[in-house]
Amino acid sequence: MIPRYLVDFNLSELPVVDTDVIVIGTGIAGLFSAIKASEKHRVIVITKKALMESNTRYAQGGIAAVISEEDSPEYHRQDTLMAGAGLCSSASVDILVNEGPEGVKELITLGTAFDEENGELALTREGAHSHRRILHANGDATGYEIVRALSEQAAGHPNIEIWNEHFVIDLITEDNECIGVLVQRPDGQRIFVRGLATILCSGGAGQLYRYTTNPDVATGDGVAMAYRAGAVIRDLEFIQFHPTSLCYPGAPRFLISEAVRGEGAVLRNIKGERFMDKYHELQELAPRDIVARAIVHEMEETKSSFVYLDITHEAPETIKHRFPTIHDTCIGYGLDMTTDWIPVAPAAHYMMGGVRTGLHGETSVHRLFACGEVSSTGVHGANRLASNSLSEAVVFGRRIIERIQQMPPLTRTGEGIKCLTERHDAVMQPIVERRLKLQKVMVRQVGLRRSEEGLTKGLEELRRQLPIFKAALHTREQWEYANMLTCALLLTESALAREESRGGHYRVDYPQRDDEGWRKHILQQREKGMLEEMSDDA
């Protein structure tokens, strides 16, 4: 069994730092929540790397919100529910589509410069959206612009402390109440940070897979530490593989935004044949899971490791203006998207499930909240609608702070809490080798297409790594690996349990969606194991 804590400690022997709100992570969810909390509270923001390093930074396409008079919250709601394949929370989706526009206005107030056309906010369309409602910045650098603006606000705020290069090892709880976090400083010293409320904004788990659009920091830390603390984890089997990441020798799996297809790019197989009309009526603008599986099928049919994305029919000036980051990155590898077809293949991109929350981001552990990709608010269901993630972070970040402002003072001190298990110093296989082995298991057995045979084999291989939890872990790399292993086990177990295909979860042995038997969520909780919960998608 996965232990309650990753390391041994005795809080009474550790230095204590008191604050009001602890924020873990510096993507859009963490920074926006910190800024909102700082209006009335002292805030400590903790990031294991640098302030600007997060998944948000690499988000290209944009942020979805109803801005146009031709659009409406009801249209946005319908699109989100359709993509979510029967597992969205209708209440959460209603909140997103109705409160999203106000969240965008707040981002603008905080300094985010979205692109404009003729004096109005520029809007584009992405896959499975019925209307143009995607705001973007600097063409295809939306996430970077948002993080830039929010970082500047947070860094200069008198009520916000930012701790770079600090690692949160575990959440500290007493009687199902989170009273703070155990942190390792850059110099190796461990401290107890105690707070009125803790907000997990630690992002996703793309590093579970060898091919991912996520940065190195996306190791599933938040889900793993919340699971150890007793929080309920929901829908972890639903992993979104982005259909189009750059697949070229010497280049990283760089994201080629869905907005490129939104602006007219088409997919071609290695023979040059356009193929999406065989798979879905929306062709290149079909939901991501359908496009990703279609690409894999074409790759297998043509015995190729990639397909092509072709936008050469558009004017070169238009492409360079709309997608400057993608264009310049491709040029750096000798590819010119104005004249060349770009080789692409699917890569792990987004985790639809996560720590289950209520409508104000509250988890099943008191005083613990979750926001952004680490959370499962119910907005995304089985398949996230493009560009809803940044909106979700802002909308639910605001609601979390509203709830925190109503909370009573913290009365527990943490006195007497300790974990003394006498872990042994084992001679371990290098973590880099263990990590690569885990990633290979996930790609082969728990990737885009799954089966009982593959999932069972993958689970057996992952379980062989469980003895690491009995070892004394001392470094960030070791803790990250332990968190990755925790997430990989939970994901594989839930994927094995769900005997159907829906959204980001596809089983070749159960290829059909089964609403009668499986229109429900899989929950996982450390003490209670696997549970189920009916979907309230209306």
Automatic annotation (TrEMBL):
NCBIfam families: nadB, PRK07512.1
Active site: R288
PANTHER family reported for this sequence: L-ASPARTATE OXIDASE, L-ASPARTATE OXIDASE, CHLOROPLASTIC
One GO term of the biological process aspect: 'de novo' NAD+ biosynthetic process from L-aspartate
Cofactor(s) recorded in Swiss-Prot or TrEMBL: FAD
Gene3D superfamilies linked to this entry: FAD/NAD(P)-binding domain (3.50.50.60), Fumarate reductase/succinate dehydrogenase flavoprotein-like, C-terminal domain (1.20.58.100), Succinate dehydrogenase/fumarate reductase flavoprotein, catalytic domain (3.90.700.10)
Reactions accelerated catalytically: L-aspartate + O2 = iminosuccinate + H2O2
EC number of the protein: 1.4.3.16
Species per Swiss-Prot/TrEMBL record: Paenibacillus lentus
Any GO molecular function: steroid dehydrogenase activity, acting on the CH-CH group of donors
Protein encoded by which gene: nadB
Keyword hit for Oxidoreductase: yes
Record-linked Pfam families: FAD_binding_2, Succ_DH_flav_C
Family indicated by similarity: Belongs to the FAD-dependent oxidoreductase 2 family. NadB subfamily.
Its job: Catalyzes the oxidation of L-aspartate to iminoaspartate.
Alphabetical list of SUPFAM superfamilies matching this protein: FAD/NAD(P)-binding domain, Succinate dehydrogenase/fumarate reductase flavoprotein C-terminal domain, Succinate dehydrogenase/fumarate reductase flavoprotein, catalytic domain
Location, primary (coarse class): cytoplasm
Keyword Flavoprotein listed: yes
Subcellular locations according to the entry: Cytoplasm
Pathway(s) the chain acts in: Cofactor biosynthesis; NAD(+) biosynthesis; iminoaspartate from L-aspartate (oxidase route): step 1/1
Domain FAD-dependent oxidoreductase 2 FAD-binding: 20-390
Keyword list, A-Z: FAD, Flavoprotein, Oxidoreductase, Pyridine nucleotide biosynthesis
Top-rank EC class of the record's enzyme: oxidoreductase
Name listed for the protein in its UniProt record: L-aspartate oxidase
Fumarate reductase/succinate dehydrogenase flavoprotein-like C-terminal domain sequence ranges: 435-525
Gene Ontology CC annotations of this record: cytoplasm
